[in-house]
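Aim 2, interim progress. The first record below pairs a target sequence with its structure tokens.
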Amino acid sequence: MNELNTNKIETKILKPFSGIAAIFLIILAQILSAALSIAGMFFSGWLLLVGATCFCLLFLLYPGIRVLNPNEALVLTLFGKYYGTITDSGCFFVHPFSKAFNHVCDQEGFSIPSTASTHENTNKVPSPSASKKVSTKIMTLNNQKQKVNDILGNPVIIGAVVIWNVSDPTRAVFHVDNYVQFLSTQCDSTIRNTARLYPYDTVETDSDEKTLRGSSLEIAENMRAELQAKVKDAGLTIHEVRITHLSYSEEIAAAMLQRQQATAIIAARQKIVEGAVSMVKMAIDQLNEEEIVLLDEERKAAMVSNLLVVLCGNKDAQPIVNSGSIY
């Protein structure tokens, strides 16, 4: 994948102050400010002003309390600049004016696809919250079925599922506009590029050529490697790609079914002929060894013809009893 002309931002992992301790200190400071204000009511107006001002300003520190669940990350910016990333779970205190950044949550009606999605790339539901946390859980992207042409030009309908997660939240939110849509687009491109390199199936049964139907695991691994190379700069890790649907397109499905049926019939006939020839040879050899009847070459040819007709025919034989001489 070609390097894009974008500003590469290095991840800075924050180790912020404990949020529980910060809450305790803020509440303690507010209690002291309230006590100072009460004292100022009896002794000095300046003490009342200072205490009331401190008590109100301490409320500005509460937005700095951030809570993260396991497998979540928070990418923070401060006045338009990258501030840092929190990857640990727990309660933390950061700069109260820092803002969480996640462009996926900024788009109304869009959410990260879940394992329950089976028909579409994404579930269009209202955004659940404005927390803008980046989920680092392993997720499933069920790609839409799409029509592509294999290496022989046959139209094929193919679909795949991608197991992935966000491994670098900083890159995911800053290097691409929307990492979920970016992954979906790259997945479509990878499927098309891979399907054009292989045939759907081969006519020869003993061929070692890789096909979409016969070598699905190897082809899926190639798709995973190609997709991983494309989304590496977006901070995504592709764990697995599986082909979930593979079929001929409707316009050629009937013709391909006839070809498969013809191939199966030819293979079955070959087995029947091989068995019939073996049985005829065994019958002639046994007759000659036991000297049950002596046949000349003409009668042997007639016997072979009759046996092959009986053994290779697809209908029951109707025997004819010969009451006269065979000569």
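The second target in this work package is listed in the same format:
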Amino acid sequence: MRPLIGISCCLKPFGIFGTPNHAASDSYIRVVRGPVGGTPVLLPAAGEEAAADYLAHINGLILTGSRSNVWPGHYDGPPHAEGTPEDQERDATTLPLIRAAIAAGIPLLAICRGMQELNVALGGSLDQRVQDLPGRMDHSTPSDQKIPLVRTGKAHLVRIDGAGALAATLTAASRRTAQLAVNSLHNQAVQRLAPRLVAEGWAPDGTIEAVRVEGARGFALGVQWHPEYDWECDADSRAIFEAFGHAAAAHAGAKLAAAAE
């Protein structure tokens, strides 16, 4: 039986009436059905009470990317610039869900906004617009969304900690490398790293691009880029999802064994 993989949803207006919809990109569905080897389960942005219910069933958690930014009130940051998209319903769901998933040893993979949520959930803070900071690169999404390479094109290199969990994941897949070429589609980034997080990857301007949860009982990694966009053609992206999938399958097996005792 395939492990159940929870996929965090955003709350977005849909249709001519702007009806709120719980949504996640199809790219996450496909990657779960593909190299993760799991069954995707969408987790609505239904608040903290729903988090415990989700954890009782899932064997792994993917925290998705999104155009919305984490509400700065969660890390005592200044208000967002006017027009910045927020999703406080998602924040109210994912932040407690992250803490509970780590405590329960449920494998976790945090992607882009998901990595920012991971940092905030564990006590870190964020820069809101990296591209406005002195000496920093523009990591943001280009305005022209019609170009396919916006999502799959490589924007910059990431230096990888050779002794970290991410490096071990890539080494296990026989891809030994000190750096990765990645896409880049974010405005926010880690400012103050949460106490339980360890940086494992850095952009050329010093922006933290990958983290692990120190002392986590299970797989717990965050990446600032979007490996779900190019896993079909990029071996490193696929290796990250395969490692997460193996951890989720092991969690599912242990859960079944415990239930049978």
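DSSP finds seven helices and 13 strands in the chain. This observation will shape the mutagenesis plan for the next reporting period.
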